[in-house]
Amino acid sequence: MYVIEQARPVAMSLPGIEHATWVGHDDGLQQLSIWRQSMAPGTGTPPHSHDCDEVVLCLAGHGELHVDGEVHRFGADCTLVLPRHRTHQFFNVGEIPMETIGILGATPVVTRLPDGTELDLPWRS
Amino acid sequence: MYVIEQARPVAMSLPGIEHATWVGHDDGLQQLSIWRQSMAPGTGTPPHSHDCDEVVLCLAGHGELHVDGEVHRFGADCTLVLPRHRTHQFFNVGEIPMETIGILGATPVVTRLPDGTELDLPWRS
What we know:
By secondary structure, chain A is an all-beta fold. Chain A is 0% helix and 47% strand.
């Protein structure tokens, strides 16, 4: 399957996060997983890291990236760059849903809490 | 640098293609390179492959993907999935610029012509 229509994100068991996996291992890839997400105002992720590089394209909204003890504000038309193993958190600090495309340099994607425990994500990665 | 503003594509030495590298090896990544491109109506790429997985998000326009002896039409809101080493060509078959985000599962990216010759791209990858 070389051409796939892009799905809208839908509600997941993680509160405030809607998600659609656009492409990954199930589509014949070995190095890329791409996630379309929408995060509700006032919500955020737990601190976590991945065993692979991550890039987030912000399409709409206003967010904060917490990493290395620093807070970075971002908005639509920003690219977030997270080399692998970098513990980070995203927050929607605006008043509209924060729309993003998450690009991960592996598939499946390994996600870890700060103590190294592997986090079992509620979507295919 | 964790947050980068997204640049507009600019003219390159490849005819009909405007390009901006949004993120790659120079930004501290080892597994991802992301390219924003605009292809003029009536133009296309030569047949080529990459040594890594590639995913293309089509943002606007109408294109054709030629791969495996087949022609696949695509438009805005389509995702193209190209496992590594798959020789392919993109064409803009519409009347407006074809706007894409190219996501490559390596950085730098190795690009080859069908005879295996490495193609020297005119942008950082």
